Amino acid sequence: MNLVNIIKYEWRLNNTKMEKNKKTDFEKCTIHKKSNNRYSIKCKLGLWAIEGPYDLSLINEANHYFKQYKADGEYDKLLEINK
C-alpha cells in the first residue's frame, strides 16, 4: 500500500459516508506529494502546507489546519464545485 493510499484509507475511516471511490472533503481540498523520503500535504487554496517525513503526526497536523479552515467556511465554494 503506497502513502497516498494509506492517507485515503485513514481519512475514509473517519468519514461517515464510506462509499467506494468517493473522495473525502479533505481529499477534495488538498494536494498530496511524495518526494524522496519527504511528504507534503497542501491546501488547494494556498492557505496552509505541511511538509516532513511521513507519519501520523503529519496527517494530524494537516487535519488540524483543514478542520479549522473548513469550520470557517473557507472551503465551501471548492466543495460545492467538487460535488
Describe the structure.
By secondary structure, the chain is an alpha+beta fold. It has one domain. Helix content is 47%, strand content 19%. It is built from 4 helices and 3 strands. It has a 3-stranded antiparallel β-sheet. The N and C termini lie far apart (27 Å). The model has no long low-confidence stretch (mean pLDDT 84).
Give the topology, please.
Elements (H helix, E strand, L loop, with lengths): L2 H12 L10 H5 E6 L2 E6 L5 E4 L3 H16 L4 H6 L2
Antiparallel strand pairs: 1-2, 2-3
Number of helices: 4
Low-confidence stretches: none
Strand content is 15-25%
Number of strands: 3
Biggest sheet: strands, sense, closure?
3 strands, antiparallel
Mean of pLDDT: 84
Q: What is the molecular shape?
A: globular
What is the string of SSEs from the N terminus onward? HHEEEHH
Question: What proportion of the residues is helical, as a percent range?
Answer: 40-55%
> Could you say how many structural domains there are in total?
1
| Straight-line N-to-C gap | 27 Å
Give me the secondary-structure category: alpha+beta
As laid out across the biggest beta sheet, the strand order is 1-2-3
Radius of gyration: 12 Å
